[in-house]
Amino acid sequence: MGRRKGHNGDEENLSCSFCGRTVNDGVSIVPGPADANICNECVEICRQIFMGDKKEEAGNAKRELPKLKVPRPAEIKAFLDQYIIGQEATKKALAVAVHNHYLRLSQPALPEALAKELGDVVLEKSNILLIGPTGCGKTLFARTLAKMLDVPFAIADATTLTEAGYVGEDVENILLYLIQAAKGDIASAERGIIYIDEIDKIGRKTENVSITRDVSGEGVQQALLKILEGTVAHVPPHGGRKHPQQENIPINTENILFICGGAFIGLEEIVRHRQGHQVIGYLDSDTKGRVQNSENAPLAVEPEDLVKFGLIPEFVGRIPIVTSMAQLTEDDLVRVLTEPKNSLVRQYRKLFALQGIKLDFTPEALREIAHQATARKTGARGLRAIMESFMMEIMFEAPDVAGEKTITITPEQVRAIVRQTA
Cβ atoms within 10 A of the Cβ of 128, count? Predict the structure, then answer.
């Protein structure tokens, strides 16, 4: 192989039409029509290219995932109880919503009679809105649900999102976080959970107009509509802005559960005004007590309240499950410190136990920590900051403790160290 008869009957040297080498260069050449030839080494390169394309296609192809085991609402609530204190109404609402969502994904077979009647019924997705003050556990709810269901989970901040054409982050980038959490497995990402925090910030109105971002947030809400409802979005593989020359990752959001959360400061006034509970003038002692107690009670939020707050009606319609969370009381914060599986007290006890030290907290010390968090109005989120502030000195000296190596934390220690660091 490598030579052929010329038109005059003489042999002629053939060259590869791709690399230009001839048989004199030690390659074999396959002659083709119209003097188009190819050598054996170029054939091997072509084979590797084709095999690489097939591997890439196989890697990008969505694999079939095993069916989700859909836990009952009671099982979901029991799991949440292990990690989250209080918020009973929110736990039940989330348990039912999440159960229904993943039941919709699994689609178990219906009896024949019902299949004929209900087979064509399309179950719509029910995204969730969590309303509550900072530190009440909104993010923890979403993270714990994803942990129980063993699905990819991602957190996005609504304040970083902007309408296309403005300086900021494209809405589609929140899907990239989920794809990354799924380690690039699109099929797994398409049944994951995304928590969008600070969602109330895109509903605020302001008179300070900026040319660099969408201040009112209405454009961001419009951009989120399709993703929340369900669409095939095209996500930049490395984030940032999309451009025509870039190959984007397609992902279907139809089965992604979106949980949005926000403090919605000022919403309580809108709700009370609608309910006719607006207070004018001075408060007597009974009225003061009722108003103060209402701060620790969930709000009875209606869609019209969210529209008055600044969310557009179409956006409110994409989040049909709305649950309001109460401010944690001092008693709740004491329980947060000790009862959950990952409670701060348990974490510190384990940390000290690794050094051969027994760590104890008096009940009064726990109450003082909770009191400090309540005074700062930081909720459960502030507990760690307070613990770190007074435990730092103790942890610094802990390795040098002699004798029985037992350390007991008292309320006096908490107050003294917190006072120094304040």
Answer: 25
Q: Cα 177–342–150 angle (5° rounding)?
A: 40
CA distances from 74 to 41, 71, 80, 105, 169 (A): 65, 8, 10, 19, 39
Q: Within 13 Å of residue 356, how many CA atoms lie on the same side as its CB?
A: 7
Q: Provide the pairing of β-strand 232-235 with 249-252.
A: antiparallel
Residues 149 and 359: their CA atoms lie apart, in Å, by 34
The pLDDT tens digits for 321-336 are 998 888 888 898 999 9
Kindly report the pTM of this predicted structure: 0.70
- DSSP structure class, residue 313: H
The torsion angle over the Cα atoms of residues 239, 241, 247 and 250, rounded to 10 degrees, is: 70
Structure token digits, residue 197: 């925090």
Asked if 202 contacts 161 with a C-beta cutoff of 8 angstroms, the reply is: yes
Residue 62 sits at φ, ψ, to 5 deg, of -75, 125
What pLDDT, on a 0 to 100 scale, did the predictor assign at position 210? 44
Give the mean model confidence (pLDDT) for residues 261-288: 67
First to last CA, the chain: 87
How far is Cα of residue 394 from the mean position of the Cα atoms in its chain? 35
For residue 265, is it left (φ>0), alpha (ψ between -120 and 50) or beta? Answer: beta
Angstrom distance (rounded) from CA 122 to CA 309: 31
